[in-house]
Amino acid sequence: MRQYNSTFTGSEPFWANACVGENGSPGYWEYSKGFSQAAVILIDLVLRAKGIKYSVDELIYPVCFNMRHSVELRLKGSISELIQLESYRSRNLIFDFSGSHNINNIWEFFKESAKKIDSRYDQIIERLNIKINDIAEIDATGQTFRYPIDTESRKHLVNVSVINFLVLKRSFTELEATLDELHRLNTYLLEEYSWGSFTKKLSRRDLFEIATLLPHRTT
User: Fold this and answer.
1) Is the Cβ–Cβ distance between 139 and 68 less than 8 Å?
2) Residue 196: CB partners within 8 Å, gap ≥ 6?
3) CA geometry: angle 178, 182, 188, nearest 5 deg
4) Which tens digit of pLDDT belongs to each residue from 160-176?
């Protein structure tokens, strides 16, 4: 890399400098939040202007691309956390992060893996399933809102016709909130499993539930 890049560089004012790379060590979570915030900001700009100042027909592509890419990054971040959880059980969970971009395949891998690890994932998976399948149906590989035609020169979105910005906002807000819950659950389980209080098949919570069912030790 060149010693000086005139575009991607730090400068004044200081507050406008974004920390990247090893400066802050951003991961899947930080990247995904950036794309999702960009989508929400653009949606709000369009809705406030009521389609007058900004073109809904043009901004729909960066909005939906950012939404979809954010979800892909969120799921990959969650898979990386599942890998950490499995490491506490001395088990290897292998996923091709760089080669996997089909959101349907990523989601199926997460669902199957999470359900095997801890039953507390079941409810949140059920809530996420419809929204993520909506995305997978329209843009499984991240190309639909990125290019007007696919690799075989076929036009994208021929079966959709219109996409409503208000519906997008409502749906994505709900999806984001549930993905935030998933992130909190991952964080909680990582701490819990780090204590080592589990068996081959039972989590710490399972053990506590069994304990409440047992009679007093004197009997």
Assistant:
1) yes
2) 88
3) 140
4) 989 999 999 999 999 99
